[in-house]
Amino acid sequence: MVFTHFEVCLLGLCLTQDNPSSPEGYDIRGSVLDVRLVAAAGASNLSAFRSFLDRGANISYRGPGGQSVLHQACAHKSGGEATIELVRFVLDYEPEDSTAARAHLGAMNHNGHTLLHECCVSDRVDVAQLLIERGIDLDMPSVSLRTPLMLAVHLGREDMVKLLVESGADLMEPTTGPGSTKVLTVLEGAASKVGSVMPNKKKDEAMARGVLALMDAIGMTPMDKVGGKSLFSFFFDPRAKAVIRDAQRRYRSKLMGDRLEDAMGCDLDDSLSPARSRSHDAVL
After folding, report:
1. 36 with 7: CB under 8 angstroms?
2. 59 vs 94, residue with greater confidence
3. What are the backbone dihedrals phi and psi of residue 229, each rounded to the nearest 5 degrees, phi first?
4. Is 39 left (phi over 0), alpha (psi -120 to 50) or beta?
5. CB atoms within 10 A of CB 93
6. CATH topology of domain 1-135
């Protein structure tokens, strides 16, 4: 039996921990199939995945870190349509609304990351859309109390932010414990956390894009204040400031264009179109 490098590493990790799918002990034959099943899911290889299931692999097996087969699939950045097909196959594998089906959809790894968290990391908006259509919890926080929307904002996943907001994600940060009340919005929380741990230019630039995407999704403009403060007061990195400055410049240009259209009583795009220009030249 020949293993890929990924399977060897995964199997080595499995050998050092208890196998949650085999509480009575480590079954080498069953675990080899389970490891290959997880590897097939991570590669979005549905044919191999089905083959390992037919040979007795456990679809509920959890790999290192508590990663389910769906976690592995959602983490595949370049899987394309193949990932969608595999995720749909797993979700349809158990009877609808059964305990097993709900367990697949609500799977969390050891960090408390749900499938939506994994989609945010891999920026798989298409997979997230499928999971949302199947009824996944939009607001389940991780161990660090970070919801998928919070993670999407922090990573600057603009399309993911838009999808989650449009799908009804909670715009408030989760409570910190019993008796706590929600007092901080996701937007305020993201802005206040910029550079709070350590300077990170790449992270700050991504978060600037995430904050702007969230503002746009909830009907705010780049010119609006957050918690009574200008956006520039939260960001110190020049690249992050450049992102905000560019967004504000584009917003002002659009605003001026809209006002000019209102004053002229026509659509500037139509009035400047090649067809209308040729027609005007013909009249002259």
Report:
1. yes
2. 59
3. -120, 150
4. alpha
5. 14
6. 1.25.40
List pLDDT tens digits, range 232-280.
Answer: 888 878 888 899 999 999 999 988 877 776 677 666 555 545 544 444 4
Which phi and psi angles does 226 have, rounded to 5°? -115, 115
* Amino acid at site 147: T
Torsion of CA 81, 83, 87, 92, to 10 degrees: 50
Instruction: Write the single-letter amino acid at 111.
Output: N
Specify whether the CB–CB gap between 194 and 234 falls below 8 A. yes
Task: Please give the Cα distance from 235 to 192 (Å, whole number).
Answer: 9
Locus of tokens 């410049």: 249
Non-local CB neighbours of 5 within 8 Å, separated by 6+ positions: none
* Global model pTM greater than 0.70: yes
CATH number for 138-173+183-284 (one of 1.25.40, 2.60.40, 1.10.1200, 1.10.10): it is 1.25.40
Per-residue tokens: 258 = 């809209």
User: What residue spans in the chain does CATH classification 1.25.40.20 cover?
Assistant: 1-135
Beta carbons of 175 and 117 less than 8 angstroms apart: no
CA distances in angstroms from 114 to 28, 108, 132, 138, 142, listed in the order given: 28, 5, 12, 9, 7
Tens of pLDDT, residues 86-111: 999 999 998 877 888 888 999 999 88
The count of residues in the chain is 284
DSSP single-letter state for residue 174? P
Q: What's the DSSP call for residue 58?
A: -
Those residues whose C-beta lies under 8 Å from the C-beta of residue 203, and which sit 6 or more positions away, are 154
